[in-house]
Structures are given as structure tokens and as C-alpha cells.
């Protein structure tokens, strides 16, 4: 943690540097490729989100209900990109970001039931412009803390005015209860130096198991409700 004197020195250094035109030009020139890359990721998010909206529309007729509750999207923050590059031992460059970080573009698909997750992911991966790069099934094999979700890293094309470009997108599939647990877990454990860690970890795991059990029971109720009258 820097003290206020250090912060003032750093601030003054940057202010002075940025008042120089050569430095300004340098910053503008080097930030342009980053801006372009982030814009391509935003386009990839739009492509993937549309694919799920289309699937939801079609399957809502077939299933007589919407398999998708909500779709959330996010572009990884610059701080988070920097932290991940450092953690993985890569220096800061636009090339390294594109080549080595797979979750800059994130699409989270919140489904009603676990089976919806597998049906949707299968239909999505069957599309001929989607290439699967990596799959982590934390539903079949939950993380030790109880986290459940199906993660896919895929490549999708984006169509620009003069070229087609392949972009990586991370798609996370969760049920409502998986998402509810993960959101609260993220908030509760946000502070790294929390007290009572052991009891919190135990309770968190217990809640994840109750939540998985509720998913199974709700899915059974859905099946019962769909049975046709004799
Ligand atoms: P944010 O804010 O969502 O970006 P890898 O990319 O394979 O080298 P990584 O990134 O650990 O390794 O991949 P993994 O395990 O697939 O997890 C990535 C994302 O899944 C996280 O993103 C979270 O969104 C979510 N996630 C994974 N484990 C947990 C967990 O235990 N609890 C919660 N709440 N979420 C989890 P980021 O980058 O951490 O954050």
C-alpha cells in the first residue's frame, strides 16, 4: 500500500509526462490496438448472446417454457486483465492478451434446470461456426468449495467491414440456484482476510449441496408437471 506522499509523486510524474506531446502521441498510438481488440470482444459477445436468444426462442415453443432465465454479459476489466497476465507470467501487450487470456468476453447463461444447461450447450456447440477450445464441467465435478457451473471456451467469428475475425468467448452455464450461490459466495468471500474462514467454508459447501439438491427436486417437479393426462 502506497502512502499519500508516494501517490502524489506518482501522480505528478504522470501529469508531467502526459503534458509532453510525444508522450501523448505514444499513449494514443499504443492504446488504439487495445481499444480495437476490446471492441472485437464486444462484437463477439453480441454474436454469442444472439445465438442464445435464438435458441431460447425456438426451444420455448418445443418445451412450452423458456429454458433460459437470463443472459448476463461482461467484458473483463483492465485491472482484471492485468492481474491475470501477471499471474500467468505474461508481459502486458495486446498480443499477449488475445493469445493467452480466454475470458475477456464473458457470457453467462442462467437456465431453469440442469438438463437445460446440457441441451443448450449441445445445441450451441453443434453450430458450424462455433469451435470448442476448452470445457470445464464443474457440475459433474464441483470445485472443492461447492462451486457448480459449466464453462466453455469457444471461438466464434465476427464479421467486420473488411474481414472476418475469430474471437474467444467464455460461456458459463448455471441454473438459477447455481448462480445465486456463486454470486453470494463471491460477495461473502470477497475480502481475502476474512475471519471464521473454516466455518464459512463448511457452511458454504453445505449450502451448495442443498442448492444442488433443490435443482434435482425442481427438475423432477418440472417432469411431473409435463406428464400428459391419460
Ligand atoms: P470474473 O469477474 O468473472 O472475470 P483459467 O482461465 O483456466 O486459467 P480460471 O480463470 O480460474 O483459470 O478459470 P475457471 O476455473 O474456469 O474460473 C473462471 C471464472 O469462473 C471466474 O472468473 C468466476 O467467474 C467463476 N468461478 C470459478 N470458480 C469460482 C468460485 O469458486 N466461486 C465463484 N463465485 N465463481 C467462480 P474470474 O476471473 O475469477 O472473475
Structure described in brief:
The chain has 230 residues and is α+β, with helices and mostly antiparallel strands.
Description:
The protein has seven helices and five strands. With 230 residues, it is an alpha+beta fold. The longest helix has 43 residues, at 21-63. The chain is flat and about 80 Å long. The N and C termini lie far apart (70 Å). The relative contact order is 0.11.
Report the total helices. 7
- Structure ligands: ligand 0O2
- What is the overall silhouette? flat
* Major sheet: arrangement of strands: 1-2-5-4-3
Flag low-confidence runs: none
* Average pLDDT taken over every residue: 92
- Largest sheet: number of strands, sense, barrel closure: 5 strands, mixed
Q: Which radius of gyration do the C-alpha atoms yield?
A: 22 Å
Structural class: alpha+beta
What is the H/E order?
Answer: HHEHHEHEEEHH
Number of strands: 5
The percentage of residues in β strands lies in 15-25%
Helical residue percent?
55-70%
Note the gap between the termini: 70 Å
